[in-house]
User: Fold these one by one.
Assistant:
Number 1:
Amino acid sequence: MMKLLSSPFSPFGRKVKIAMAMKGLQDRIEVEAVETETPVANKANPLGKIPALVIDEDTAIFDSHVICEYLDSLAPAPALFPKGGVERIKTLTLGSLADGILDAALLLVYEKRYRPEEKWHAPWQERQQGKIDRALAYLEGQRYAPAWKESPDYGHVTLACALGYLDLRHEGKWRGKHPGLVAWLEEFEKAVPAFAETRPK
């Protein structure tokens, strides 16, 4: 049996857990709760990052994007990654944008978690917040609130996890200015029950 190394609070790990559920692979993957830069995490990924998917004693896959691509290859439906062309590029671009939101949001959390307050750097914090704000405004302005056809894909899953993380660690402040994305997330949750099932508690 494969083993997913992750934390219940990791938005990147949540992305993988949702992909597992969508592909019906839960019975083939054991989830082990670990933190970053622990001996278990370091063995699977030299960077000490999670999630990592341990395939066997000699093979582990990381990061979340790569894991999701691998999971998509294990079951035919629903397709998380279009096979090619413009549709695949759209999926990867949305996923990249949502991962960028997550990266900036995590850095803001780490700034306060790991540095004393007197060393917080306001211009740097504003720079990270600016990335989040611009990305959300861009998505809100698209008006298509990125739609899916038969089922949400990897890009949609990543965006949902990014918005969920902003709810968890940033007090949901994004919601006031982005009613389109709020409505979009509600529709995503209806379409993908695993989003609610993987919500950190």
Number 2:
Amino acid sequence: MPITEVEKIWMDGELVDWRDAKIHVLSHALHYGSGVFEGIRAYETERGAAVWHLDEHLKRLFRSAKLYHMDIPYSIEAIGDAIREVIRANDLKACYIRPVVYRGYGEMGVNPLDAPINVFIAVWPWGAYLGEHALENGVSIKISSWRRNSQNALPSSAKATGQYINGVLAKMESVMAGYDEAVLLNDHGYITDGSGENLFIVRDRTVTTPPIQAGCLDGITRSSVITIARDLGYEVTEENLVRTDLYNADECFFTGTAAEITPVREVDHRPVGEGTRGPITKELQGAFFAATKGETEKYADWLTYMND
């Protein structure tokens, strides 16, 4: 999805013009993928722009950095303040937020420990990741021939830049084969997730998602949907799933900050359920988007308002 340019990007403590936000070509992260990041959304509400699960995203950013021995030169509070600053500077009512911590220019080679740590935060308007139509009509997915990284090769609990090349391979394969998205299996043949989304199925009114131990990211939207589904009275389980569980599901959907809640209508040319968005998926979407707009008191603390 194309990026819409705005005015400013926050880089290492300063607001710089969008087109002047540059890094050196010999930055370590460019060569070795040595960076960590978050994808966050701010939603438009009656009280102005509000960031969805800001604290949880920033805590995960710092956990990811810790796994890669990256000492972020700012506190969580300072990064939170910087996000507020850059949203206000660009006068955005709703946006996607991308903080990136990366190893910059100064060292080359596989040992990155002496490379400087830099931080930038970009924000821009961004609609539905898989397309607005997909929120209602669903997407087609392919079980990828590429396997998800082993937990003992690259830790799935870290949201690291270099790790996403695994998902890039799967995404390209699926798009070139005529599908919208991919699903990856682990080395044991269990479902992990999409190229950039967590996955859920519904069968006999039970909502099931793969456990974190299968190799999927501990998604913040994933956790929110589990809470919402249980609050709506559905049984939610975390269990290993195989590809036939997707074929035989009554409903299937992706979750993620970018994907939000996107139905899956077809897996490997097999319709899921009736081949349309299912009623439970639709109900979860309604509850989710009400929460993002600040319309549900129960979930009020999931939002951080920029005008407060």
Number 3:
Amino acid sequence: MSVCVLGGVNLDHVARVAGLPRPGETVASRTLSQFPGGKGANQAVAAARLGAATRLLGAVGQDGAGDVMLDFLGGAGVDVAGVRRETDAPTGQAFITVDDAARNMIVVAAGANALYGADAANAADLGGAGIILTQFEATLAAIETIFTRPEAAGALKILNTAPALNEGAPLLALADILILNETELASFAGLDAEPADPDAAIAAARSLARPGQAVLATLGAAGAVAVRGDEVFRVTGLRQRAVDTTGAGDCFCGALAAALDRGLALAAAMAFANAAAALSVTRAGAAASMPLSAEVEALLATA
């Protein structure tokens, strides 16, 4: 089997501050760094570093940032033959502010990512992937096209609903596994507020689940829960000293895909992904923070 990831490829600009600014407030940055990022790139790097043969579908510009991203992805073991070079838009950029509590605020300029539509997705080589993973940083047209192609009929289709887009709701039914964080779960389940505890998250996930579909909710430090039919799965959070939470959700998604790709059952794959995400927050950056399998296994052995 193998993993095919469709999604955003961005160069991240990360400013470290004491506290996140309030609306209208200006704060001083202590440092400004650049890291590889984008949800598609992050998830692909996570899957590749954790042992899955991983192909990325997406787009970058004909610019220096595109060169940086392709070099990094290739060095991380990701097959980038499916990443297009666009002349009509620059490589996507993300502007990220991280505070001393490791919380972040993110603004994304899609750039070339927005040009990867249905035609590109229809022409893409899926490489015979057994797992297809995507998120809402990909265009909705590309997601629908990839998921409904005949070549995808036998693949396990995973949709990460980040960022939460109301217009993406019709696509939820196309996935075999949905992955939502607390904010996204509240949005798509029609809740007035984020679930207050894991039991509330389970109830909200059950309200979204279609027959045969697994709905998985990531709960940050509280771990993750999932429902599939009458089954309920829970994993507790692993306490780590957080440095930067950027990309932790993407790490979870890529790690889950890699674990399922190696044949783990859903409960074991969730535990593996939970440990990988816990490790990722101990390092700065998004794609650069993705751990290796040996590190995840070592953490699980001591948990």
